Amino acid sequence: MALPSARLRTRLFDIELQSPFVLGSGPLSYDGHGMIRAHKAGAGAVTTKTIRDDPADNPFPHMAVAGRDSMVNAEKWSDISGEAWVGSEIPRAKDAGVVVIGSVGHTPAEAEHWVSRVDEAGADIIELVSYQEATLVPMIRHAKSVSRKPVLAKLSPNWPDPFASAKAALAAGADGLTAMDSLGPALRIDIATARPLLGGSRGEGWLTGSAIKPIILGHVARIAAAMEAPIVGIGGVMTAEDAVEMLMAGADAVGICTAPLLKGIEWITKLNDRLEALLEKLGYASIAEVSGAALANLRGPEDMEKFGFRFDPGLCTSCGACVRSCAYESRTLEGKAMSVDERTCRYCGLCSSVCPTGALTLER
Ligand SMILES: Cc1cc2nc3c(=O)[nH]c(=O)nc-3n(C[C@H](O)[C@H](O)[C@H](O)COP(=O)(O)O)c2cc1C
Fold first, then answer.
1. How far apart are the CA of 235 and the centre of ligand 1, in A?
2. pLDDT digit string, tens, across residues 220-245
3. Which one of 65, 86, 245, 334 has the lowest number of neighbouring Cβ atoms within 10 Å?
4. Mutation test of ligand 1: which of 208, 245, 263, 267 has the most ligand atoms closer than 8 Å to its C-beta?
5. Which of 107, 108, 90, 119 is nearest to 29 (CA)?
């Protein structure tokens, strides 16, 4: 395994991570072996599948794609026992050098059963996750009373006010936040059979991957702008560019789950290599430097200044996407001759946003 570069090494709490990528709780960390694979591929830390009192029985099937780079899933918590996690799987991962985040869910009683045991088994960080906002605070209070390890509270985008949930979690003693879990309920239907693609209750599942990224970024930025605590930003990061966006929104480390699921665990190695090259190109020397880089630009008043367009005919392929996407019929393209009717253009920006080659950009 090629070690990630020095530029990618970072810290979460006081713990050194070989890269900012944290494998989120999910199928790839189904046991110690899965966690070691992720570590060898270059993950900075690896979160266990969520540990509860009873192993999960998952419906069949419980994962399906949902458009490009997104998925729905009806997978529950860990399908191996808590005893196996604390008896062999966490120690095995620790022996192999994995930075282990022990995920414990979903009720206060289960936190009482598992937090101290997950801590004693060697987890470096405890992550608490709940389906219901109201149970997270007592889980955090319990964890802080029995463990000296840093506690991450995992937030859900399905709760009515994740910003308030973040505040409540930190006030209860959480040391940091994992933002966020999957979004739903979500549904996909097989049109050949009119049956749901997933076998869960009502066929419902939870959406992850690219489709949720803008929502997660919005929550991460709001929380990061107002609160000091470290944030593991997770949701929809598929590429190095996505990771930089997540860091710029205020994340300190970048969670990934759907990306290595769809692209294979070795994708983490590629993400590290590409992030290294991208940070160099953008002029950032460290993860700490890029973390929160956009926050100052999110504080201003609404931008009411019209911008100009820059057009580079050398990059234009005459694909016509800019013309087709103009709701106001303001843009015309003849060959590579571009023009815009300034009387009807509303400066919405969509034409440049859909340009696949960067030929049409905004001057702001
Ligand atoms: C199949 C699957 C199973 C998951 N299982 C868990 C879990 O057991 N515990 C948990 O906290 N999050 C679980 N998650 C949520 C992920 O950790 C993560 O928060 C979410 O997928 C968003 O990140 P992504 O877009 O990079 O996948 C699961 C996600 C997927 C796709």
1. 9
2. 999 999 999 999 999 999 999 999 99
3. 334
4. 208
5. 90
